[in-house]
Amino acid sequence: MVFARRNAVYMLLVALLVLFLSPFGWLAITALKDASELRVMPIHWWPHHPNLDNFRQALTTFDYLGYARNSLTIAGIYAVLVTLASAWAGFGFARLTAPGKRVIFAVLLSTMMLPQVITLIPTYLMFAELHLLNTYMPWVLWGLSGAPFLIFLFRQFFSNMPKELEEAAIVDGCGTFRIFLRIFLPQSWPVIATSLILSFSWSWGDYIGPALLLDDAHTTLTVKLANGYVNAQGMPMSNLVAAGAVMYVIPVLVLFLIMQRGFVSGIATSGLK
Amino acid sequence: MSTGQLTGDTARAVPSPSPGAAARPARRRLSLSKRRAWAFYAFTGPWVLGFLGLTAYPLLYALWLSFTNSDGLSRRTSFVGLANYKEVFSDPDTMASLGRTALFTGITVPLSIVAGLMLAVLVNQPIRSRGLFRTLLYLPAVVPPVGAALTFKLIFDRDSGAANGVLDVLNINGVPWLIDPYARWVLITLTMWGVGNIMIISLAGLQDIPKELLEAARVDGASSWQSFTRITLPLLSPVIFFQVVTGIIGALQSFAPLLIALDPTPAGVTSVPESNYFYMINVFAQYFANGRYGYASAMLWVLFAFIVVITFLVFKVSKGAVFYTVEAEPAKDKPRTMGDA
Fold first, then answer.
1. Does the N terminus or the C terminus of chain A have fewer Cβ atoms within 10 A?
2. Is A207–B47 a contact, with Cβ atoms under 8 angstroms apart?
3. Which of residues 137-176 of B touch A (CB under 8 A)?
4. Under an 8 A CB cutoff, do B57 and A126 touch?
5. Cβ contact A199:A209 at 8 Å
């Protein structure tokens, strides 16, 4: 009985896995196809002339690596700043009190529910007036103020740490800043890892922000990938799109596979469920 | 936590009978609390400043814009009162795009929550290498939206896509998936591909359910289905509720079809199939193609109001259905090491 049920679960999971992973397979197959193979009937399930030249062309049709560098710069700046700033604010909400704290915290929570798109147009106009279009300053500013969700993550984690840690440090004459830097921050590496992964992948994958605020020279790979591979007739060159997308997606997947243990424990330890 | 502090205070207070000695720690505590208050403002200040400058100000700016005929360029912006709002509610295109967005939300949110929960239950079964299954089923949720959209465009391409290839093998004629009336199914499938996010959160919720409860139910003769509906679901209801609310908010602002059209120019906006011509696509069209910043801002505020109303209704309706366990203090002894991932 139990044995049969276990087998059924196993078979169902394998079937689901095939279903969920097949899009990756099709992406890889398309990336290896010759352009002439894309329009044949019946369809080629396996490229008859596997072709790595698509990857070379995908890299050179536009300055792929240059745009990847833009993406890395933006995502790197944002991830590091927003993680530090969110840890900073999260510590304040978790361990310190002052008049007005409840109100400020309520505002923080409600901004998590605030639809991001509402501020879209004025944000563009505001950065235009400040002459910050086509610079990475918006990401610096966004990073420095922290992200509500990450602040909440750090707050949950810091709230769970024993009070004795802090008291011992106060007795030893440690200031609040030193307590944060020397005691709380070093303990919170699972949340730091989680925050870095999340914020990096948000800004790496973001389309609207760069499309709105950056011109063609400063924009990110995400934006460029979206409309960079078209032929003279303006039709997308599917095999190059696939090759470009493979090189865009694989680093993200690998990074996730390496970091996923830390990521899951970060979500779990912060009590965010 | 609080007991430790209490014993500490009494221990310090007991051996100080003289009034002078008693006053000193009190004053010290006061100045300490004042110092800590300033520390609180220093720690939360950057976020508050960021909120005021990067969220509150743009929000109010958008509100002001929505009462004007601004096109963002000309300086002759004038106040038009409620004209933009009147137009939002009287324009059949705008109302139709809101309806489509609401329909998409109504389909994908329940579907993905049920599917995510079922997947979570499945990968929570005691089988070999379930960690691997969890990771691989979650993997699509990690793919950046544009990467996912490009992948689905390739799969559902009329001539070279795998979807029509499979149909061809089954001797069924292929269809042009990326245009009406099929495009909506591509979008729903694409949305469901990322269901791993919901699976992971549901799984965390499932693992939080005390095993003793489920064992007690089994001893009492409850079937798996009974213990799932009587114990698991009620204990999971706050997690489900959280996902319903965030799912609705996310889906109503969805501009995923724009990523499938993948061209933020006026031409790209108009190439979105009608069945996927969502509210946000309409906003982009008004904004990019027509330069109507005022009208687009009014549209965004209407969407905001719509989201607030829907969220309020969900809170109202789910009252009584959501079961919160009383938990005064967060569990202190939660493992801080790497869990079983």
1. N
2. no
3. 137-140, 142-147, 150-155, 157, 159-160, 162, 164-165, 168-169
4. yes
5. no
Phi, psi of A230 (to 5 degrees): -125, 150
Shortest alpha-carbon distance between residue A169 and chain B (Å): 14
Average pLDDT over residues A172-198: 88
pTM over 0.80: yes
Residue B296: closest C-alpha in chain A: A121
> What is the ipTM metric for this complex?
0.89
Chain B segment 256-315 residues within 8 A of A by beta carbon are 259, 262-264, 268, 280, 283, 287, 293, 296-297, 300-301, 303-304, 307, 311
- Tokens matching residue A142: 């966004």
**From B47, which residue of chain A is nearest by alpha-carbon distance?**
A145
C-alpha separations of B28 from A268, B22, B34, B65 in Å = 38, 11, 10, 52
Mean pLDDT to the nearest integer, A27-32: 93
- Total residues found in chain B within this entry: 341
The reply to whether B62 touches chain A by the CB within 8 Å rule is: yes
Contacts of B280 in chain A (CB under 8 A): 117
Quickly state the pLDDT bin for B341 (edges 50, 70, 90): very low
DSSP state letters, B229-253:
IIIIHHHHHHHHHHHHHHHHHHHHT
Q: pLDDT digits over B255-308, tens only?
A: 888 777 666 555 667 778 888 899 999 998 888 888 899 999 999 999 999 999
Task: Please give the structure tokens belonging to residue A103.
Answer: 């109100």
B125 touches chain A (CB under 8 A): yes
User: Which of B150, B249, B337 comes nearest A225 by C-beta?
Assistant: B150
Q: Which pLDDT belongs to residue A131?
A: 95
Q: CA-to-CA distance for A25 and B155, rounded, in angstroms? A: 10
**pLDDT above 70: percentage of residues in chain B:** 82
Q: Looking at residues A41-56, what average pLDDT do you find?
A: 85
Who's near A74: CB < 8 A, 6+ residues apart? A136, A139, A203, A210, A220
Distance CA A123, CA A142 (A): 11
Predicted local confidence at residue A114, as pLDDT: 81
Mean per-residue pLDDT over chain A, rounded = 88
Tracing tokens 């208050």 back to the chain, one arrives at B37
A108 close to A148: Cβ distance less than 8 angstroms = yes
- What is the spatial distance between Cα A216 and Cα A208, in angstroms, rounded to a whole number? 14
Task: Please give the DSSP secondary-structure letter assigned to residue A236.
Answer: B
Q: Which of B8, B44, B165 is closest, CB to CB, to A92?
A: B44
Contact A22 B162 (CB under 8 A): yes
